[in-house]
Amino acid sequence: MSDLQRLERHACFGGWQDVYRHHSASLGCAMNFGVYLPPQARQRPCSVLYWLSGLGCTEQNFITKAGAQRRASELGLILVAPDTSPRGAAVADDPAYDLGQGAGFYVNATQAPWSAHYRMYDYVVEELPALIEAAFAVRPGLRGVAGHSMGGHGALVVALRNPGRYRSVSAFAPIVAPSRVPWGEKAFSAYLGSDRTTWAAYDAVALVQQATGERLPLLVDQGEADEFLGRELHPEWLQQACALVGHPLTLRRHAEYDHGYYFVASFIDDHLDWHARALAG
Amino acid sequence: MSDLQRLERHACFGGWQDVYRHHSASLGCAMNFGVYLPPQARQRPCSVLYWLSGLGCTEQNFITKAGAQRRASELGLILVAPDTSPRGAAVADDPAYDLGQGAGFYVNATQAPWSAHYRMYDYVVEELPALIEAAFAVRPGLRGVAGHSMGGHGALVVALRNPGRYRSVSAFAPIVAPSRVPWGEKAFSAYLGSDRTTWAAYDAVALVQQATGERLPLLVDQGEADEFLGRELHPEWLQQACALVGHPLTLRRHAEYDHGYYFVASFIDDHLDWHARALAG
Prior knowledge:
2 copies of one chain form a homodimer. By secondary structure, the first copy, chain A, is an alpha/beta fold.
C-alpha cells in the first residue's frame, strides 16, 4: 500500500474526486484509478461501488463525464473507477482500439504476449478491492460493481463468478456474450486462445446459465439508438438466458439513446440508487 | 442560416445534446457550438442560457463535463455553448494557451493580426443569438448568460454592457478585472493595444462602476482553493465595486474547491435555478 500516490484531488459535491496511482502486482505495471469520496466519508465508513469502463477509456472518462458524484454525494457511496488495462511501454499493445492497452476485457490472459501483464480480472476482483479496503474507510464486504460496454461485460462477469463478493451489479450497454460477437471474438482469441471452452468463464450469458447458487439481480440499461446494439451487444441474449434459468433481470430499453456517456449520465442516478439500496444492509 | 450543419446529436435526459457548425460572419471562420435542447423544447419554445467557457476550452468542455443537462431538462432551459475563439489555419494564433486560439477573451480585437478574426464580443452578443433565435424554437428576448473563468469575465461584460438584452447573468471564478491581472493584461495588450482606456469596455469591475441604468443582479461562485484566485481572479474587487455603487451581487466563496469543472459541476444547478427564475417571466 505504501506506494499509493495521489495524482489529483478536487473538491466535488462536498466530497473529493481523487486520482491515485500505484504499482499493481497482478498487472506488473503502474495503474491509475479514480476515487470519489462522498462527504459522508469524512465521518464514517461508506460502501464502495466499482465502475468498469469501456474500450479506449482510462480512469478519467467516468469521473469527468458521467456526472455520478452528485447522487453519490447524497447516497454516501464511494465510487472507484480503475483504468481498463495494464499500461506502459513494457506492456504488449496493438494499434487497434479494441485490443491491447485500453482494451483489457477484464480477463486473465493465458496467451503470449498478453499473459505477461493482462490480468484485469484478478486486478478488479482481488487486488483493487484489497487496496481500497486497506487504504480507505470502507464498510467491509459491501461492494457493488457496475460498468459500461466492455466494462458492463466486466461487471456482469465478476459479479456472476463471485457469489457473495458483490451485493449489487448493473450495466450500461454491456457486451453480454463476448464469445459470440466481433469485439469479444477478437479479444478472447488473442488473450485466451482458440479453445472456446475457456471463453465461457468470461461470458455473462454463459455464466447466467451455469450459475447454481445466489442469483444476484441484474440491472441493465440499453439505448435503442446504440450504434453497436445489433453487432456487439445483443441484450436479448441475456434476457433469454435469464428467462430460461429464472435469473432476475431488469432490462430497460431507451428509445433514441446511443452508446456514449450522455446515455450513461442520463440514467446513472437510477444505477446509484439501485446499488445504494442493496448496499444499505 | 442555411449553412448550419449538425455534427453531433445525442439523446440526453430526455432531450438532445447537439453540436453544430456554421460559418461565422463576425469571425470569418467556421465555428462549433453545443446546444442542449431539453424535452420541453419538443413541445414549446424555451428560454436560452448562453454559456461562455474558459481558456483553452472548445464547445466540448461544458457539454461533456459540467453535468448541466440534468437540471436543464427539469427546468426546460436550452443551453448554448460556443467555442472560445475563432479557429483554423487562416486565423492568427500564439503558442501560449492564454493568447490566440482558445483564448478570445470575448473582445473585438482592434490590433493586427488579431483584428482580422477575433471579434468574439460581436459573435456572442449579436451573431450567435440571432442564429439561435432563427434556427430553434426559443422564447424571444429571454436570454441568460453564464460562464467560467475567462468565460465568467465574458458573461459579466456582455450582460453589463447590454442592459435589457439579458435577463440574468452568473459566473464561476470569473476574471472580474482583466485590465489589472496578468491574463488580461497580456490578452488586452495584444487584442486592444497599449491604450488602457480602451480596456475598460471589457472589464467587469470598471463596467459596474460606470453603469447608470438597469442593475442586473450578479451571481458569482468562487472556490477558495482556486489556484488562480490571488493572481488572476480577485472577486473582492468586484465585491468592492458593487458595494460602492449599490450593484446587487451574490458572491459565494466555497472552501476547498479549485478552478476546474468539478467545481462548476458541484454548483451548476444553483446557477441554472438562478437563470430559470429570471427567465420565467
